[in-house]
Amino acid sequence: MICTTLSVIAGWCGGTVAPEYAEVSIRGVSTDTRTIQAGQLFIPLQGDRFDGHDYIEAAIQAGAAAVLTARDLSPEIPAIRVEDTMKAMLDISSAYRDSLKARVVAITGSVGKTTTKEMIAAILATTYRVWKTRENHNNRIGLSQTLLDTPADTEYLVLELGMNHFGEMRELTAVAKPDLVVITNIGSMHIEHLGSREGILQAKLEILEGLRPGGTAVFNGDEPLLWGLHNIQADRIIYFGIENEKCDIHARNLETPEGGIRFTIEGLGQRFDVYVPMEGRHSSQNATAAAAVAVCCNVLPANIQTALSRFQNTDMRQKTYEAKGYTIIDDCYNAGPESMEAAILVLGDKKVRGRRIAVLGDMLELGDRAAAEHYRIGRIAANKTDMILAYGPNAERVISGAMTGGMKNTQAMSFDTQEEMVNALVSRARPGDVLLFKGSRGMRMEKALELFLELQPEPL
């Protein structure tokens, strides 16, 4: 983690520090007084409904060594004065990144970037000292905190970068300065803000603006918008895929045994078999992307095989488990049209004693595509599930699609609230059923899952 003096930090961010505090040392940074540790620099951030400056006294009492501030403070508090604490945090993060010897791998994409990030980190960790983005902390604050927490001896830093407006990726990649970038796919998430899939592509490609000289771009060759790109800011382009055999590295001989996927990785001078304990063809694409990065980073095939065979995804991302007599597919973290379709296909392929039930929340940020995409998902689910329960402003469109696809109104139901939906699920679900819970982050589908399990009796 960052360990330096206030004078150095002030130089990095253009701030000022009183001479008597210039050599005060800090060890790490924090933006949260609830978790701050002694010796850290407290950075108070400002939002629409909060101002971290209101917690400076609490930070000092908790052991903060100094404060970065946009307000004038008592001369008794060691502080660096700046105009904008968020901009200063980015500047500090950028300068600290320059001081690291680590190579940086940066991942973005509409779907699968967190899973791909986790896979890449797990594989690289078999060979190198690795640091990574925690969970999906992929915005300005998350990126800055990840960088500033990075140990000095890190060899590979694996970062997830997210955005939903033009210019956001440009800001992040300018700080991260990656040596290798990955774009997992171009989907429909955030199309409300970016206008079209072509707009989403351009926003994602901003990641290349921060790529260091000699850098490599790893792109999904199954995505027509990414395939065959020319005149981009990368010295080397590597394509991965599961459909396009012209890709530099691709998955072949895909098999889907219960509970996982098995396939052969071929390309870049390598050929080896892998097993991943995750279901769905999309999981093989994430794993192939991770393998492509690993081969570029000189990881041995045996280490790639071992890491993927032991891979466990982060919470609320296609986590399958047994609870109170049901098989639960917890895929609550987020949803767009592509990931929703993939999750429903996984549910449809499940071997079951009972029924396949999809419990769905809305997909957000689709703009004028929302009605059509929800209807389309309903049509898909009608052919892959035995029952659909949906809630949210677009739930009726899901159900309309399902009924057009052949479902009866006793099998496809929409609700205005989670509570109504869960109560209906409780009255209809039976032990032995497989239940998929999925929706956009704003729909908080994990709450529906928690409530359903709370209302279930323990099996005899």
Architecture overview:
The structure is a single chain. The protein has 460 residues and is of the alpha/beta class. It folds into three domains: 3-83, Udp-n-acetylmuramoylalanyl-d-glutamate--2,6- Diaminopimelate Ligase, Chain: A, domain 1 (3-Layer(aba) Sandwich); 100-309, Mur-like, catalytic domain (UDP-N-acetylmuramoyl-L-alanine:D-glutamate ligase, 3-Layer(aba) Sandwich); 319-454, Mur ligase, C-terminal domain (Protein-Tyrosine Phosphatase, Chain A). The protein is built from 15 helices and 22 strands. The protein has a nine-stranded mixed β-sheet with strand order 9-10-8-11-12-13-14-15-16, sandwiched between helices. It has a six-stranded mixed β-sheet with strand order 17-18-22-19-20-21, sandwiched between helices. The protein is globular, with a radius of gyration of 24 Å. The chain starts with a strand and ends in a 6-residue tail after the last helix.
Which SSEs are present, and which pair or pack?
Elements: E1 3-5, H1 6-13, E2 16-17, E3 25-27, E4 29-30, E5 41-42, H2 56-61, E6 66-69, E7 79-81, H3 85-99, E8 103-108, H4 113-124, E9 130-132, H5 140-149, E10 156-160, H6 168-176, E11 180-183, H7 191-194, H8 197-205, E12 216-220, E13 236-241, E14 249-255, E15 261-267, E16 270-276, H9 281-296, H10 301-309, E17 319-323, E18 326-331, H11 337-349, E19 356-361, H12 370-384, E20 387-391, H13 395-404, E21 412-415, H14 418-428, E22 434-438, H15 445-454
Parallel strand pairs: 4-5, 5-6, 6-7, 8-10, 8-11, 9-10, 11-12, 12-13, 13-14, 18-22, 19-20, 19-22, 20-21
Antiparallel strand pairs: 1-3, 2-7, 14-15, 15-16, 17-18
Helix pairs in contact: 3-5, 4-9, 4-10, 5-6, 11-12, 12-13, 14-15
